[in-house]
Amino acid sequence: MSTLNNSAEHPSLQLERVFNPETVAVIGASKDTSKRGNQTIKDLQESGYDGEIYPVNPKYDSEIRGLTVYDSVAATPGTIDLAFIATPAETIPDIVEECGDAGAAGAVVIAAGFSEAGEEGLEAAIRDTARDCGVALIGPNIQGIYNLHTGLNLLGGYEMPKGNIALLAQSGNIGLEFGSHAEGRNSTGFSFNIGVGNETDLEFHDYLEFLDDDEHTDAIALYVDGMSDGRAFLQTAREVVQTTPIVVLKGGLTEEGKQSVQSHTASLAGDSDVLDAAYEQAGVIQVNRSDHVVPVADALAKLPPAAGDNVAILTDGGGNATLAADSLSNRGLSVTALSESTRERLRELVPDAPNVTNPVDMMGLQGDGDLSIFYDCAEALVADPAVDSLLLTGVFGAYESRGPGDGDTGQEPDVARRIASLVEEYDTSIAVHCIYGTQGSPALDALEEAGVPTYGSLDVAIASLEKLSQYGAHLSTADTKSTFQLGGGHEQHSLVRDALDAGKRQLSEFHSKQLLDAEGLPVAPFDLVTTAAEAADAAAEYEGPVAMKAVSDDIVHKTEADCVALDVDTEAAVRENFTTLVDNAKSYDPNCVVDGVLVSPMLDPAVELIVGVLRDEEVGSVLMFGVGGIFVEVMRDVAFRALPLTEHDARSLVNEIDAQELLDGVRGNAGIDREALVDLLVDVSEIATANPSITELDLNPVFASPDGTVIADASIILDTDE
Question: Of 388, 396, 372, which Cα lies nearest the Cα of 430?
Answer without folding.
Answer: 388
